[in-house]
Automatic annotation (TrEMBL):
Residues 7-193 form the NAD(P)-binding domain. It comes from Vagococcus carniphilus. SUPFAM superfamilies: NAD(P)-binding Rossmann-fold domains (SSF51735). InterPro entries: NAD(P)-bd_dom, NAD(P)-bd_dom_sf, Polyketide_Oxido-like. CDD domains: BVR-B_like_SDR_a. It holds the Pfam family NAD_binding_10. One of its GO terms (molecular function) is oxidoreductase activity, acting on the CH-NH group of donors, NAD or NADP as acceptor. PANTHER family: FLAVIN REDUCTASE (NADPH). This is NADH-flavin reductase. It comes from the Bacteria.
Length: 209
């Protein structure tokens, strides 16, 4: 397989690249600035400048793009639209590093995590934009997408246990009664999905064991 990781210089992107390389997968890092990953193959371009030709030939494109500045949060919507347009009608699958705020709190799907009382106000603008990106990609029947939401407590410096629990659209707690996942264990789940393709045009979620 040939897999490209967009936003590979980010914390999640670098760990996803590491996981792919450790499994001896042909990996290309797509970065805007100088490559900081272990990948030997690199496309240095802004995400909005990527063309169909740039993404041609990959089995999977993993979108690990992320921004935190308030005036740029809408790019979580526009970048995903751009990638979906470039992959429209193609066999290449698009996997997205998503957010937890859009996970549903019950089986009726009436309420999302970002709407709960304890959800931090500072994260609501980010969660809202990531939710909009998910809502938009759900409408794309012309793209082989999978959206992968982490647990509520997404730990950049968390340890790699090598295990995870796979869920669906709804917020879940693990056997310890918490919702958390390290970036490293999330990367394992992302690469598993990239290799297996078991959830095309679906949102899945990942929690620690």
């Amino acid at each position: 397989m040939k897999i490209a990781v967009i936003g590979a210089n980010g914390k999640s992107g670098q760990l996803i690249v590491d996981e792919l390389i450790n499994r001896k997968i042909d990996t290309t890092a797509v970065v805007r600035q100088t490559n900081k990953t272990k990948a030997e193959k690199v496309i240095q371009k802004d995400i909005f400048d990527l063309t169909k030709e740039d993404l041609n030939g990959f089995d999977v494109v993993i979108d690990a793009f992320g921004v935190w500045e308030e005036d740029k949060l809408s790019q979580h919507v526009t970048t995903l639209q751009h990638l979906a347009d470039k992959l429209s009608g193609e066999k290449t699958r698009l996997l997205v590093v998503g957010g937890a705020g859009s996970l549903y709190m019950d089986s009726d799907h009436d309420k999302q995590l970002m709407d709960t009382e304890g959800f931090p106000d500072m994260f609501k603008p980010l969660a809202s934009n990531m939710k909009q990106g998910l809502d938009d990609i759900r409408k794309r029947k012309d793209v082989l997408w999978t959206y992968v939401s982490p647990a509520a407590d997404f730990q950049a410096e968390g340890v790699r246990t090598g295990e995870y629990l796979l869920g669906g659209e709804e917020f879940t707690l693990n056997q310890s009664g918490v919702s958390q996942i390290s970036y490293a264990d999330y990367a394992i789940a992302m690469v598993d999905e990239a290799l297996n393709g078991n959830h095309i045009q679906k949102r899945i979620s990942v929690n620690s064991k």
